[in-house]
Amino acid sequence: MSDSPVDVARSDPAFSSLHRFANPGRFLRLSGKVLPWLAVPAFLLTVMGLVWGLFFSPADWQQGDAVRIMYVHVPSAWLASSGYFGLAVCSLLSLVWRHPLADLAAVEIGPVGAGFTALCLATGSLWGKPMWGAWWVWDARLTSVLVLLLLFLGYIALRSAMDDEVKAGRAAAILALSGLINLPIIYFSVDWWNSLHQGESIFRPGGPLIAPVYLLPLGLMAGGYLLAFCGLWLEQTRAEVWRRRALALEVQAAGR
Predict the structure, then answer these.
(1) How many angstroms separate the CA atoms of 162 and 73, rounded?
(2) How many other CB atoms sit within 10 Å of the CB of residue 167?
(3) Per-residue pLDDT tens digits for 74-106
(4) HSE-up of residue 82 (Cα within 13 Å, Cβ side)
(5) pLDDT tens-digit readout, 3-38
(6) Cβ atoms of residues 74 and 198 within 8 Å
(7) DSSP codes, 177-225
(8) Which three-class secondary structure state does DSSP give residue 64?
(9) Which residue, among 120, 121, 101, has the nearest Cα to 225 in the 3D structure?
């Protein structure tokens, strides 16, 4: 008699390694130690990047002071795509290895990722108005990022639409993995289609096109955003673990 897929997964060393971190108590202890090391540097880096970018970096010779929107817009765009990739990874761990904490982490990435994506679209519109003369155009890059926001919102809505958490988790995980196809579309959209959006100017083979006077505060903002994203996600996940613990104790007490 052949083993079931779950039994095969349980015999996988990767499964055992992953499930070492599925214990809620262990997660709460480790995350409690890590969280301050995320929150404080995130605040400091973001403040330093904003002050440097808004008050000390020079205006661009073409865009003028409108270029300063870059310090908020570009890092939020990076975190929007990275956040969705994280959502897909957690969904894969939940779907294949039945990792309970990965499923919970995916749930809490959704709202944080949606927030950064909305910030990306809002600041992009503010930047686009003086540059293109319109708040919104159906440009390939803008449209694909809008699709990314809809994927985040769709994931959140699907998790909330079903009473059965197991079925909701599986359906939402499949949706998250299906949406991965949108990430390369976002990245390569300016190369594949005639786009108003500028092409890659930082992570390119020939090196960044942006001068260091702009690149350094942008790097500070990116670091601050990354730590802020991780801190928000971690705090949300901790709160949900505590909520579920409290709910389990209420059910246990009611059954006595």
Answers:
(1) 35
(2) 10
(3) 999 999 999 999 999 999 999 988 878 889 999
(4) 15
(5) 444 444 444 454 455 555 567 778 888 888 999 999
(6) no
(7) HHGGGHHHHHHHHHHHS--SS----SSSTT--SS-HHHHHHHHHHHHHH
(8) strand
(9) 120
User: Amino acid letter at 104?
Assistant: L
Spatial distance between the Cα atoms of 145 and 120, rounded to a whole number of angstroms: 8
Check: CB of residue 60 under 8 Å from CB of residue 218.
no
d(CA 165, CA 57): 49
Task: Look up the pTM and report it.
Answer: 0.86
CB 153 within 8 A of CB 114: yes
- A 10 A CB-CB count for 192 gives 11
The neighbouring-strand residues paired with 60 are 64
Closest-CA residue to 214 (of 40, 75, 113): 75
Q: Rounded CA gap, 71 and 219, in Å? A: 9
Burial class (CB within 10 angstroms; exposed 0-12, middle 13-18, buried 19+) of 62 = exposed
Sequence length of the chain is: 256
Q: Which residues pair with 64 in a beta bridge?
A: 60
110 or 206, which is more confident?
110
